[in-house]
Amino acid sequence: MNSKLIELHQRSNNPNYLIGYLIRDNLDWVSLLSIDPAGNDGGVRFIKKGDIIEVSQASSALSFISNLLAQKQIPDPQENLSQSSRRLLEQNFSDIFAILQYALKHETLLKLSLRNSAVYGGFITELNEDEVRLFTYNDDKIFEELVETTIKLNDIVEVIFYDLDLKITSEYISYQSSTGQIGNDLDLVQIHFRYLNDQRFKDDTMFGRIITQNNTHLLVERPDDNGQIFALTVVNRAAIAHITSSSDYLNYLNFAYWYNQRQNNLDPYNFQKFAQQFTQIPSFKEIISTSKPGHLLLTDSIELDEVNWGSVLFANDEEFVLRPIINFDLGEPFPIEYQELCSIDLISADTIHLQSYLKSIHRI
Fold first, then answer.
1. Which of 4, 143, 164, 321 is the most buried (most CB within 10 A)?
2. What is the DSSP string of 63-129?
3. Which contacts (CB < 8 Å, 24+ apart) does range 205-213 have?
4. Rounded distance, CA 209 to CA 232, Å?
5. Do 245 and 184 meet the contact criterion of CB atoms below 8 Å apart?
6. Distance in angstroms (rounded) separating the CA atoms of residues 278 and 287
């Protein structure tokens, strides 16, 4: 398979975008072998042409992913296709009905994206020329009471098969059906911060396992959405609004840890070994003062509207000046007070990837 790597923008998912290999371009639909931001197999996606607003073969994001593929820092999904994905990509579907009919025949868990940006995951139970009916679950990963949902075929703009989230979720549903419930045996937590931005306070949280703590800080091992360890983070106790230690989603993450451990893919960067060197948790001031020129840090503040990657230009006892990385390039420096920080990543997969790329193009 030798397909074009593209960046694809959708009306229903703007301003986000997809990166992957364009496999097939039919009359009304295209098929994409997607690469997710962590470099995992992002699944096979069928995308309605009417929802596509831009396709690019040259962009900063494409250069970034191409560099990671060339340096073997992330696996190439073309070289690691499962038999199920390969069989699916060989199909020449003419319309949405044929795509969904394939999923129904093979009893495949999938996700459907709609024109209104809603996303539903589930198993198809009924299908006709006008609508599809599914047993669906929500983002909280609650599977005890699946909801029957009916969707008009004309409203569907994307169908997703076999991404890592679907693979783990399918295994989790099977495990619950055959073996029973799984609890929060790893003592994972969900940390809510005192963000001043109302939307961030409502939506942005941190999941992880507290490795150690003192009176002022926590050291947290953080998994991504698929239960792979992707960061080691120092957290400011004073910035925490509250901590949740019991939820359906935390139970799901426990299972995802276990799933990735069985796949020998739980900790691809050996962050657990890296964490063992810390007999004491470094303070934010210590992390900033020892940061070398050109070294990237990921910082989060209760005052800012998003997390920020960047390198430290200047620091004193109260604050530091960060030169941010914006769209894979240098932005305008700005100050951050230590007391307003929620967290700093000591190390993360994203930072390793970004720093490697920026050095290769001589931006840091």
1. 164
2. HHHHHHHHTTSS--GGGS--HHHHHHHT----SHHHHHHHHHHTT--EEEEETTS-EEEEEEEEE-S
3. 206/233, 206/235, 206/343, 207/249, 207/250, 207/253, 208/233, 211/275, 212/278, 212/281, 213/237, 213/281
4. 10
5. yes
6. 13
Which tokens sit at 172? 């989790």
CA separation for the pair 219, 211 (Å, rounded) = 6
Instruction: Answer yes or no: are the C-beta atoms of 207 and 190 closer than 8 Å.
Output: yes
AA identity, residue 160: I
First to last CA, the chain: 35
DSSP symbols for 261-308: HHTT-S-TT-HHHHHTT-SSPPPHHHHHHTPPTT--EEEEESSSSS-E
Buried b (16+ CB within 10 A) or exposed e, 181-192: eeebebebbbbb
Q: Per-residue confidence of the chain (364 residues) as pLDDT tens digits?
A: 668 999 999 999 988 999 999 999 988 999 999 997 666 668 999 999 999 999 999 999 999 999 999 998 888 988 888 899 999 999 999 899 999 999 999 999 999 999 999 999 999 999 999 999 999 987 778 777 778 999 999 999 999 999 999 999 999 999 988 887 789 999 999 999 999 999 999 999 999 999 999 999 999 999 999 999 999 999 999 999 999 999 999 999 999 999 999 999 999 999 999 999 998 999 999 999 999 988 999 999 999 999 999 999 999 999 999 999 998 999 999 999 999 999 999 999 999 999 999 999 988 8
> By C-alpha distance, which of 230, 212, 222, 215 is closest to 277?
212
Joined together, the tokens standing for residue 354 give 């970004």
Q: How far apart are CA 276 and CA 272, in angstroms?
A: 7
